[in-house]
Specification:
Elements lengths: L1 H4 L5 H10 L12 H13 L5 H25 L1 H10 L15 H4 L1 H15 L4 H17 L3 H14 L1 H4 L6 H22 L3 H16 L4 H9 L1 H9 L15 H22 L16 H9 L5 H31 L11 H15 L6 E2 L5 H7 L8 E2 L1
Parallel strand pairs: 1-2
Helix pairs in contact: 2-3, 2-19, 4-5, 4-7, 5-16, 7-8, 7-9, 8-11, 9-15, 15-16, 18-19
Main location: membrane
InterPro entries: LipidA_mod_glycosyltrf_83 (IPR050297), RgtA/B/C-like (IPR038731)
Subcellular location: Cell membrane
């Protein structure tokens, strides 16, 4: 739907395209894995119109698969499927995802880290430790806040007796070496630019505190969970029932609550004292469905599974349709010029015409408004792309 309706890419996507062509490790905001993915999508397709939406949904789909793999290890196949069917009912996996940025690029890495960490903590061999180190290191290139999940994971690894016993083998340390090797270039670049992303984060925090209510972040998170709670009720998972025949083990439940809810709750509490962007918590809700099924899944029968599947289908269709309808109406009837409403192709062509009427050389730099200049710099139909300022 976004590829059919949106005339131009969303703001963060345009910015990602601008940075992606430079192939830098780091900007003053973030590491640049999402920008590399956007640039790769353009190089493969030659388009700025639809590939970014495809990449966004690939990351969401990968997150679904990884959450299923973790839930299957913890709860079995049936409950794992139920947990994944709950995920489309979460706001964070629907409406905002067309704007592919660092918050959504993190999602599969957070899910993969949770799965791999559980595997290594329960006796996984050297391959699992190496994979955990690699994924953890690459996850930092999506966004530095992946480090928050790594901190929670390290605390669990040290506090869980069974997981801690694995530390006497050489494999955890080999995995740590892989992580350090992967993350080292990013750390060196962060030092080289004088830790500018931290300066940006501090400025962003101040802006949020000055322009948002102190409870704004928590309000957005709670609102984003409303559909999830509604579907739990519709499926009958909130009703009273006898004690579970197959209770979830204490260790499993502790892991899910700690890794699945811990980072989200910590950021909510922190948001009362410092700024937090409303989308920053997006990857922190990957395991909410798994937690719900772990607590309520003993009530899960054929009828409940059918209701979950129907609700998931309805949410996917309804949100996609609502996105298309609202975006089209705002752009074409109400005149609200959001980023996706601007005719990127026409702006780019006009910039080329004006430039070549005045100068014979190639247009290399486009300066101007922060919304319009990058669209002119995209030059969707030509390989002669510019860099905006």
């Amino acid at each position: 739907m976004p590829a059919l309706i949106n005339v131009g890419p969303p703001n963060d996507v345009v910015e990602g395209f601008m940075w992606g062509r430079e192939w830098v490790l780091l900007t003053y905001k973030h590491p640049q894995l999402p920008a590399w993915l956007l640039e790769t999508s353009h190089l493969l397709t030659g388009s700025f119109r639809w590939p970014q939406y495809f990449v966004a949904q690939l990351t969401i789909s990968a997150t679904f698969i990884l959450v299923y793999l973790l839930a299957r290890d913890l709860l079995g196949q049936r409950r794992a499927l139920a947990a994944v069917l709950l995920m489309p009912t979460l706001y964070f996996f629907g409406w905002p995802t067309p704007q592919f940025n660092h918050d959504y690029a993190q999602m599969p890495f957070w899910a993969a880290i949770c799965w791999l960490l559980w595997r290594v903590g329960r006796g996984g061999g050297p391959g699992w430790w190496l994979a955990l180190g690699l994924v953890s290191g690459v996850g930092l290139y999506a966004k530095f806040s992946t480090g928050l999940l790594l901190l929670f994971g390290a605390i669990w690894l040290l506090s869980d007796a069974r997981a801690r016993s694995r530390l006497v083998t050489p494999w955890p340390w080999l995995g740590l070496a892989v992580f350090v090797a992967v993350a080292a270039p990013l750390a060196a670049e962060l030092y080289r630019v004088d830790f500018l992303p931290l300066t940006y984060a501090a400025w962003r925090d101040q802006w949020v505190m000055a322009h948002r209510s102190r409870f704004y972040y928590i309000g957005v998170q709670v609102a984003g969970l409303c559909g999830f709670v509604l579907v739990l009720a519709i499926a009958g998972l909130l009703r009273r029932s006898p004690a579970p025949e197959e209770p979830v083990g204490r260790g499993t439940l502790v892991y899910l609550l700690w890794m699945g809810l811990g980072p989200a709750i910590l950021v909510m509490v922190a948001s009362l004292f410092t700024g937090a962007g409303e989308a920053w918590g997006a990857p922190m809700y990957n395991l909410v469905g798994v937690v719900a099924i772990a607590l309520l899944g003993h009530r899960l029968g054929a009828v409940e599974m059918r209701k979950l599947a129907i609700c998931a289908f309805i949410f996917i269709i309804a949100i996609s349709g609502a996105y298309a309808g609202i975006r089209w109406t705002k752009c074409n009837l109400r005149g609200h010029m959001d980023a996706v409403c601007w005719p990127a192709q026409k702006i780019s062509d006009e910039a080329e015409v004006v430039w070549h009427a005045a100068a014979p050389g190639r247009l290399d730099i486009v300066g101007g408004d922060g919304l319009i200049a990058p669209l002119a710099g995209l030059m969707p139909m030509t390989s002669r792309r510019s860099s905006p300022t």
